[in-house]
Amino acid sequence: METKVLNRYFELLKLESVSSDPSKLKECTQTAMWLKAFVEEMGFTVALETRDFAPPVLIAERKGENPATVLVYGHYDVQPADPLEEWKTPPFEPTVKDGRVYCRGAQDDKGQLFAFLTGVGDYLDRQSVKGLPAPTIKLCLEGQEESGSPALIKMAPDLRKRLAADVMLVCDTAAAADLRPSIVAGLRGVCHFTVKLTGVNRDLHSGEYGGVAPNAALGIARLLATLHDEKGNIRVAGFMDGIEAPSAEEIRLANESTPSKEDFRKDIGTDTVAENLAEALGFRPTIEVNGIHSGYGGAGSKTVIPAVAIAKISMRLVPGQSPRRAIDCVKRHLEEHCPAGMKVEFPEEAEGAGGFRLPIDSPVFRLAAEVLKEMDPRGAVFQWDGASIPVVSVLKEVSGASPLIVGWGQAEDRIHSPNESYGFTQFGKAREWARRILENV
Is 315:281 a contact under the CB 8 Å cutoff? Predict the structure, then answer.
């Protein structure tokens, strides 16, 4: 990687654009301004839009000479760095080791986005030298994807004309094992909310009140345990209604690209995995507990009966499920199973967006397969990604564009975890992919 490109990459990574932390709004805005200056150097006309005091959304356009229009979506926000004690290097100080850059956002999605935008610059430079026409290229880069994209989802209906395109390119997913190219033919949706369980009016002395007063920490554990049976199946009434089953061909192709159970066990460090990985990861919904907080968690002991417990719940959704209905089903279940003598509340929620699947025989996929075959003789596989980019389904409807989602992540990148990293080889693949797909659109 050229020194100039590496230096710019590091500049971007050092900005602490954590969208879930309101105190980091300044850093998120600085990141948007950095990207604005970067793409203006490539000839884009840029506007920063904001709503509800959220991190800015960057909307940019570079008019081309041929009739095609390409929309590029990406996000510049990152996950919180905690737990900080597990990082081997400072989380916002990019560090190079063994051909990889270690930093929060090194891959998701600052690294992939920056590599792709660098490839866009390579393409525009080549077209200029050769005197060839380029398509109109539009950018939609946001700072809230890790928080459900609430601002962009709200403003999307007003952006129809500005985002109208033929193809939408997204580089925010993983390749198959050994960096074999992967075309994402579907993404699960996501929504989340907070549960607050209150038992007594204050933390109580466990000796004076133990055995008498309700314990919020025990209550939240029992309450959350009602969401699944002993085999992990979801027990929430109505949650699974209306799900659109995958076709036999989709399941066959998904199985071809899914890691083996042995590899999956090694990756996550446990012997317990789902019976059918491809179906569980790409075609089934989930309800997950992302965190539980109650009582004392410091050194030593503090013998109290906690008054309040809080849990963070997220749901991955598949086609046929409405985010609003999914949230309502789970809330209703928790209210019906609230432990006696306690009160359950829901202080915050993010409705997010639903999941989607794309036709595997589409012309855009055929074009992508040809281009990826040129990059890698093994050719591309199809994946139905269990992760979510909530706003993609919204942008698909608003822009009228056919999504083409190709990313270059790997399990070793450890996204959303301490010691996130991105390899120079992966960066180069993302950069080359951007240039090649634009040459062929």
Answer: no
